[in-house]
Amino acid sequence: RDQVAVRPGRPTEVWRYKGKLLKGEAGSLQPSDSYLGPVIRLRRGQRVRIELINELPEPTIIHWHGLHVPDDMDGHPRHAIGPGQRYVYAFRVLNRAGTYWYHAHPHGRTGHQVYHGLAGLLLVSDEEEAALRLPGGDQDMPLVIQDRTFDDDNQFVYPAAGHGMGASMMSRGGGGRGMGSMMASMMGVLGDRILVNGRQVQALDVDRRARRLRLLNGSNTRTYKLAWNDGSPLTVIGTDGGLLAAPAHRKFLVLGPAERADIWTDFANWKEGESPSLQSLPFEGGMTMGSGPLPDGSQFPVLQFRIVGSGPVEPARLPDRLAQLPPVQASVAINAEHPKVFDLTMGMMVWGINGRPFEMLQATAQETVKLGTHEVWEFRNEGRNSMMGMVMAHSMHIHGLQFRVIGREIADRFAAAYRTVQPGLMDEGWKDTVLVMPGERVRVLVGFEDYPGLFLYHCHMLEHEDSGLMRNYLVK
Ligand code: C2O
Ligand code: CU
User: Fold this and answer.
1) Residue-range domains of the chain with CATH
2) Ligand 1, atom nearest to 101 Cα
3) What are 35-44's pLDDT values in tens digits?
4) Which pLDDT tens digit goes with each residue over 256-313?
5) From the CB of 404, is ligand 1 less than 6 Å away?
6) Is there an atom of ligand 1 within 6 Å of 460 CB?
7) Fewest 10 Å CB contacts: which of 115, 137, 291, 350?
8) pTM, 2 dp
9) Ligand 1, atom 1, residue with closest C-alpha
10) ipTM over cut 0.95
11) From the alpha carbon of 66, which atom of ligand 1 is closest?
12) 376 close to 443: Cβ distance less than 8 angstroms
């Protein structure tokens, strides 16, 4: 537990990861000046050992989001440790170079713990990436985007959870336990202040050189539709699982909770004194309840840059081939013609998948897969069983692997809303999280390699996850 400056005024009480490099460990740790954990930099192929020491008053565990690791290294909530306990992670980094992250994952408390600060970036590099000479050092800028609500005293306000999880220990003021707040904590939690890298920033000074902006939507529930304010396209070079085959250009980019995008930007496109800014554009189909002063899908500024200095004049060059990316071949799946269907459902105030809520140690026959095979999974967000026919977007994450998006299909009655986000969905490249809009079916190709065991898949809107939109899959 700590106190940090998040915005002007009184420091905010947070929970945070304070890391230090163990003797003899390869890799590096870059401490953050906010509530976020240190940026962990690792190389593909290296072995890493990490000790988690729990100094919180409640159980916790860390999940390495996006990493391909054995099941007992993955931060499943069944491995949560109590106060004062220690968990030792040791694994080999098999992932491609890319922008990954880590965060708390105890069952029922993930939303609360992440909101209070327990998250950080984990950047992997490799030789393929190094050969491209992408902007490095200061030119390689991770941007973690999150939303928070503050009380008058500058403290985070996170609604106390229902379901007997106990009142929030840190939020003040907003911690009522009425039906409204139970509803909000189940539907999702939106903040009305946008933070970048754990701070409420006005503007970032940048010189007129090319930069790599590694965007992470680290918000609990909010989805962003990011665009430059002057309408210049975004140049996307990577997704959740690393670099694309070639740069892609988008007028806007939609990032659901936990999704990442690597953006290459040449700030020489703007002149000294200009202030290009990233904003979130309006869209439909976001969260519709408990939305407060800054609803999901509204328009707001995210981050402003200020161009300083006049040089250099030479334009920066981005290679037009980036990385090896195998073509998506659904035919490798053992069920290519018959995708497994995962219906995102909601019963009596409980989210679920195919009508089942989370069970710590269970996986159904459908959720059992064979090591060394590929399968096609289809997430369906059609509001089956839902209260009042309500349907909202879900950001589906599969632990322990990277998958490819094969296809999407939208139901007619949602098509108009869908068009407000569809051009900004990045389905190229490796993904570990995919946004499934209301009325949508998203098909993914999933491969189960190297590690047998019990892994999670769930909605990364953390309040949905905490209230049951999470299940296990078992690799045998
Ligand atoms: Cu980033 Cu199970 O989550
Ligand atoms: Cu969800």
Assistant:
1) 2-129 (2.60.40.420), 141-149+190-307 (2.60.40.420), 330-475 (2.60.40.420)
2) 1
3) 999 999 999 9
4) 999 999 999 999 999 999 999 999 999 998 876 555 789 999 999 999 999 998 877 6
5) no
6) yes
7) 137
8) 0.95
9) 65
10) yes
11) 1
12) yes
